[in-house]
């Protein structure tokens, strides 16, 4: 097989790759350690990254983007190995993070032209279009923008170089409610049209309820859960009932109960239907079963 054919075959193989994949990603700091994180984000999908403050979400984003060197593990972006092909791998990443990334005292347009040179697929026309969509003036400086406007500018720049993977670290936290809804709609549309894989970190679980295809949960540097949102909803549920039933359930130490709260008026528990015992069936007959939302699910999963 000649080099040309080998190149074509490699391109074809990459079409079938995940937009983003990490295996055994680890990083050690003085007071924190990220341990063996493995994630996959298929093209055209959104994976929500959840976790309490300090769980390691931003660290994961920085490692995946190449902004921070990893301790161990492997990263692939659109099929490119970050270790062996760092330049083409990083070209495929669009990043939104709550840190200064551009020249503060140069215009948005000048920043776009300066940093766009590092991306072979950067388009001036696309950049101009996205600035207009987000109602940002080309002559403004990043230092003049609000936090919400900075995130809009980062998103405009990211989309202008046509990435295969988007890393969004709390992108909607500083957006007003109206534009937040517009942003989520626009993100879903863009992901579908351009088949981008998105890792979306957020404290706003309601946002992820609307748009995420899957959910990953970090706790103290470890990955507690990673699966589709559909699987999560079918596996976990809330149980509610009389306080007497709750006390009985609490004393039974049922393995399928992830967490439980009992008060004088009733109880609430989250059940993992994958691990409930036969004895649990009788108790469930005396309870109300409800679908769990991401906020409650995260609360019980991380409550110790």
Write the layout of secondary structure elements.
Layout: H1 3-15, E1 20-28, E2 33-41, E3 46-51, H2 57-65, E4 72-77, E5 80-81, H3 86-91, E6 93-96, H4 108-116, H5 124-133, H6 147-160, E7 165-169, H7 177-194, E8 197-201, H8 205-211, E9 214-219, E10 222-228, H9 229-235, E11 236-241, H10 243-252, E12 257-262, E13 267-272, H11 279-284, E14 288-291, H12 294-302
Helix pairs in contact: 5-6
Plain-language structure description:
The chain has 304 residues and is of the alpha/beta class. It has 2 domains: 3-228, Rossmann fold (3-Layer(aba) Sandwich), CATH 3.40.50.300; 232-302, Alpha-Beta Plaits. It has helices at residues 3-15, 57-65, 86-91, 108-116, 124-133, 147-160, 177-194, 205-211, 229-235, 243-252, 279-284, 294-302; strands at residues 20-28, 33-41, 46-51, 72-77, 80-81, 93-96, 165-169, 197-201, 214-219, 222-228, 236-241, 257-262, 267-272, 288-291.
């Amino acid at each position: 097989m000649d080099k040309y054919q080998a190149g074509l075959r490699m391109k074809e193989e990459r079409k079938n790759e995940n937009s983003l994949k990490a295996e055994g990603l680890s990083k050690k700091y003085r007071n924190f350690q990220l341990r063996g994180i493995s994630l996959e984000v298929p093209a055209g999908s959104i994976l929500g990254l959840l976790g309490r403050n300090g769980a390691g979400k931003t660290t994961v984003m920085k490692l995946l983007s190449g902004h921070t060197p990893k301790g161990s593990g492997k990263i692939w972006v659109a099929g490119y190995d970050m270790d062996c092909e760092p330049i083409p791998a990083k070209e495929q990443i669009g990043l939104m993070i709550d840190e200064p990334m551009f020249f503060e005292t140069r215009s948005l347009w000048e920043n776009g032209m300066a940093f766009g040179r590092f991306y072979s697929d950067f388009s001036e026309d696309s950049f101009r279009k996205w600035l207009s969509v987000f109602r940002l003036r080309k002559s403004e400086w990043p230092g003049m923008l609000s936090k919400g406007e900075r995130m809009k500018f980062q998103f405009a720049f990211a989309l202008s170089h046509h990435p295969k993977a988007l890393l969004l670290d709390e992108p909607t936290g500083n957006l007003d409610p109206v534009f937040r809804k517009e942003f989520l709609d626009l993100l879903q549309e863009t992901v579908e049209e351009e088949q981008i894989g998105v890792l979306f970190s957020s404290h706003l679980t309601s946002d992820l309820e609307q748009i995420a295809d899957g959910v990953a949960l970090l706790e103290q540097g470890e990955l507690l859960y990673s699966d589709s949102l559909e699987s999560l909803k079918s596996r976990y549920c809330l149980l509610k009932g009389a306080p007497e039933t709750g006390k009985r359930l609490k004393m039974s130490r049922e393995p399928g109960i992830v967490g439980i709260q009992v008060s004088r008026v009733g109880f609430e528990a989250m059940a993992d239907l994958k691990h409930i015992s036969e004895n649990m069936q009788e108790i469930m007959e005396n309870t109300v079963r409800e679908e769990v939302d991401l906020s409650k699910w995260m609360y019980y999963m991380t409550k110790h």
